[in-house]
Write a structure and sequence with these properties.
Number of strands: 0
Radius of gyration: 23 Å
Helix content: over 70%
Strand content: under 5%
Structural class: mainly alpha
């Protein structure tokens, strides 16, 4: 089931909210758990058993880890992690592994017909965070399997994050407050996310798809840049839109999830970019991979090695393709370069900051081309075209084919919304005089109503609106 569907907005969510807000608090977890299982089974009922098996494995594994000390405790942790990663590797990477074995050894092993379960990368990482938290003693093993199940399959962030860490949300599962302020904030946040997806991401995706489906030597460098920029906006507003909707839904049901994006496109370094982009994944790798490897505590060389490992794993996490691995290493290279050169250090010089910002934009836009391309060969030729290094053959379409006034307008809006302009406007009036605050809130509410109407119209006019990160 999609957040951006009439089934969810017009049927599932209103019914769930009505039941949830009317019943007693002690039944809230039960209702949410049932709703989450229905939500997941709606689209792929055959994969519900896999998620339930993950819940059972991690429930039993954590109890064993919590019971023992020393070697037995470590063995239980390792086995539970292997079981978690085993399922993820099988469903997500087995054919990639087979393909590379065939390539290296000239083998003829047949591919396995398999479909990637929705959200498996996200709920697997959440489950691993839980058992590691128990192992470290940051929390006790959850003896109520239904509460653990709710943590792993909570529907607002089940399919595409934010990735929750158990120690951040354990208390909210046990007890949380549902009030008008949270519901009001949650509804507004959901509308913002829905608008990002339907009005900006889908429009930018329409432009990007027209370009990326052509051979990269069939269009001019200008078109290549339009395609890469359009995809950069599509990916950001699609993924941050989902995160906004997930955070908004969490608030409606009393949860407060961590922020997943903080205007990453204003960054002045790739180090800063990853503090602002997919924050829940970045912090997950920091807490459960980078720091256990030694972080920056064991000298510069080992720190750089640890960063390299983290970004290699970040690329692998995103998908079973060399494109994603190269994309992860691309970012890792610049992270390491910044650590060695000190380019990521803050400076008050405006010209220097501007140059650093341009550098950062170039790096992540080129990275998104690698991320989006169907293979590395296509990505390389596309990037070369961006810089005029490809001999363009027959240009099939005029520039107007890729977008008209509406697409240009949405592109300008996407650019404006990529910077914290409206956030500063909201902060300006938040603590101002009562009349100004009321006028500002009225204006914001009117805008949100209009955005909701436009978004619902877009949903009604379309057929299927999957989020990009559903395939990861």
């Amino acid at each position: 089931m999609l957040f951006s569907s009439m089934t969810f907005i017009g049927l599932f969510l209103p019914l769930l909210c009505a039941v949830y807000l009317l019943i007693k608090n002690k039944y809230h977890n039960a209702i949410l758990l049932i709703a989450s299982l229905i939500f997941y089974a709606w689209g792929e009922p055959k994969f519900l058993a896999i998620m339930l098996l993950s819940i059972i494995i991690n429930y039993c594994g954590a109890l064993i880890i919590d019971k023992y000390e020393g070697a037995r405790k470590k063995v239980a942790l390792v086995i539970t992690i292997i079981l978690n990663l085993g399922g993820l590797i099988y469903f997500k990477y087995i054919n990639f592994i087979i393909d590379n074995i065939n390539l290296i050894f000239h083998g003829h092993i047949d591919f396995i017909k398999i479909t990637l379960p929705l959200g498996i990368s996200f709920y697997t990482f959440q489950a691993i965070s839980y058992i590691i938290d128990v192992y470290r003693g940051e929390c006790k093993a959850q003896k109520n399997i239904y509460k653990l199940a709710l943590f792993i399959c909570l529907f607002p962030q089940l399919i595409a994050g934010p990735i929750l860490k158990y120690h951040d949300i354990a208390e909210q599962i046990d007890s949380r407050v549902v009030n008008f302020e949270k519901v009001d904030e949650g509804v507004k946040r959901f509308i913002v996310g829905l608008s990002k997806k339907m009005l900006i991401a889908n429009t930018m995706g329409f432009v990007a798809d027209k370009i990326f489906t052509q051979a990269p030597d069939n269009f001019s460098p200008l078109v290549a840049w339009i395609g890469s920029i359009s995809y950069s906006f599509q990916l950001f507003f699609d993924f941050s839109g989902y995160s906004d909707m997930a955070i908004g839904l969490g608030l409606i049901f009393g949860f407060r999830f961590m922020e997943n994006f903080n205007y990453p496109y204003i960054s002045k370094s790739i180090t800063e970019f990853w503090r602002r982009w997919h924050i829940s994944l970045s912090t997950w790798f920091k807490e459960y991979v980078y720091i256990p490897l030694g972080g920056n505590r064991k000298g510069k060389i080992k720190q750089l090695r640890n960063l390299w490992i983290v970004f290699l794993l970040t690329g692998i996490w995103h998908g079973a393709s060399w494109n994603f691995i190269v994309w992860g290493l691309w970012h890792g290279f610049f992270i390491i370069l910044e650590k060695v050169s000190g380019i990521a250090n803050n400076t008050e010089n405006k010209i220097t900051n501007f140059c650093k910002h341009i550098y950062c934009i170039l790096v992540f836009i080129i990275g998104w081309v690698i991320f989006r391309a169907e293979n590395l060969s296509y990505a390389l030729t596309y990037i070369k075209n961006m810089f005029g290094l490809v001999k363009v053959h027959d240009v099939e379409y005029l520039l107007s084919y890729y977008g008209g006034r509406y697409e240009i307008l949405i592109g300008i809006i996407a650019l404006i919304c990529s910077i914290p302009l409206f956030a500063k406007y909201r902060e300006k009036f938040q603590y101002d005089g009562s009349l100004k605050r009321k006028v500002a809130n009225l204006f914001i509410n009117i805008c949100l109503i209009c955005l909701l109407i436009f978004s619902l119209s877009a949903i009604a006019a379309s057929t299927y609106n999957p989020f990009i990160y559903f395939r990861f």
